[in-house]
Write a structure and sequence with these properties.
One of its GO terms (cellular component) is cytosol. The chain has 128 residues and is an alpha+beta fold. It is built from 2 helices and 6 strands; from the N terminus they run βββαβαββ. The protein has helices at 48-65, 86-96; strands spanning 3-6, 21-24, 27-33, 73-80, 103-108, 118-125.
């Protein structure tokens, strides 16, 4: 099985030595997404809710570029710098995953790249 690099200008370019996503067979691994505006190295805003939406939009755009959708997501990992924002994140997350509920972990971390407040990554599967 070979790996295919997934790249789209609808999500921010990698800010390090990694790919936005890697497709291996029916699996898609989406790298952690923070709230960078596509085509920029700037955060969308300092507001947690704005950052959560942008990070999820970036993740969704990488899924789309690979031919996947949110309903193909098997697991989501979320990193936040303030667990006090957990309920805010859950409300926004439900806008994206209202019917389909992937496995998920939310972990508080000391810091994220670019001073972001939230980062999301996912693993998706689709039989082609």
């Amino acid at each position: 099985m070979s790996c295919e690099v997934i790249q789209t200008d609808q999500a921010p370019a990698a800010i390090g030595p990694y790919s936005q996503g890697i497709k291996a067979g029916g699996w898609l691994f989406v790298s952690g997404q923070i709230a960078l505006k596509p085509g920029s190295v700037e955060l969308v805003s300092e507001d947690f809710a704005d950052q959560a939406r942008q990070a999820l939009n970036n993740m969704q755009n990488i899924l789309k570029a690979a031919g996947y959708g949110l309903s193909d997501v098997a697991a989501v990992d979320v990193f936040v710098t303030d667990m006090g924002q957990f309920s805010v994140f859950n409300t926004i997350y439900e806008e994206y995953f209202s019917n389909h509920k992937p496995a998920r972990a939310v972990v508080e971390v000391r810091g994220l790249p670019k001073g972001a407040k939230v980062e999301v990554k996912c693993t998706a599967f689709r039989s082609f």
